[in-house]
Design goal:
The protein is an alpha+beta fold. Helices cover 37% and strands 28% of the residues. A 7-stranded antiparallel sheet has the order 2-1-5-6-7-4-3. Strand 3 and strand 4 form a beta hairpin.
Length: 213
């Protein structure tokens, strides 16, 4: 766990329960480490680039958290530099809950799940919305994708944490499963044709039963 993620997530109440249940020593070093924000390294950048969805959490004016699923083409969440993520906000159901929450509180949390390899990356940061910058929006839009981008979301990353694979179900993308099944079906069809040809040759082979020796 990174120092900065622990310092942001481990509030006094959280540390109280860690002491109560005996896990505080395991995290003490992170709490006492550098307070510098986490940098997006090569491993994080590669992990983010291969994603086509993530979960985004904000907090509303009444204190209620709100979690939203964001999806798009693979790589629509961009690493702009070692501190910043960005994506084009596409027109959806026009509820604008996330957009409104950010006017009140710019803190966000992101969950990026890789169910195939049972891995997840958690990100804490501060989001800002850019409404009137066509050049930025164009740079974040994915060419050829049908969604209509309305605004840009930029996230200044403060802390990141990789989770262990425990309890993450292993799920495979539908396209990969369909491709694997297609290959199997093609192999089965080829084997059935081969078996049919062998049976046909066997049936037409002259019998030697009862022939003089």
């Amino acid at each position: 766990m990174s120092n900065r993620f622990a310092q942001l997530a481990f509030t006094p109440a959280v540390r109280h329960h860690q002491r109560l249940h005996g896990s505080d020593r395991a995290y003490r070093k992170a709490l006492e480490g550098s307070t510098d924000v986490d940098l997006i390294g090569p491993d994080e950048a590669a992990f983010i680039a291969q994603h086509d969805s993530f979960y985004l959490s904000t907090v509303g004016e009444t204190g209620w958290p709100y979690i939203q699923h964001r999806g798009g083409p693979r790589g629509f969440l961009r690493v702009l530099d070692e501190h910043t993520l960005g994506f084009a906000d596409l027109r959806g159901n026009r509820q604008y809950i996330t957009r409104g929450n950010l006017d009140h509180n710019d803190r966000v949390a992101l969950f990026l799940m890789d169910y195939t390899h049972q891995a997840r990356l958690k990100v804490l940061g501060r989001a800002r919305v850019v409404e009137d910058d066509p050049a930025l929006l164009t740079s974040l839009a994915v060419e050829g994708y049908a969604g209509r981008p309305e605004r840009a979301f930029l996230i200044d990353v403060e802390g990141m944490n990789w989770n262990c694979s425990q309890h993450i179900p292993q799920l495979l993308p539908r396209a990969e499963v369909e491709n694997a099944l297609l290959s199997l079906h093609e192999r089965i069809d080829a084997l059935e044709e081969e078996n049919a040809a062998l049976r046909a040759r066997q049936e037409t082979r002259p019998t030697t039963e009862g022939a003089p020796r």
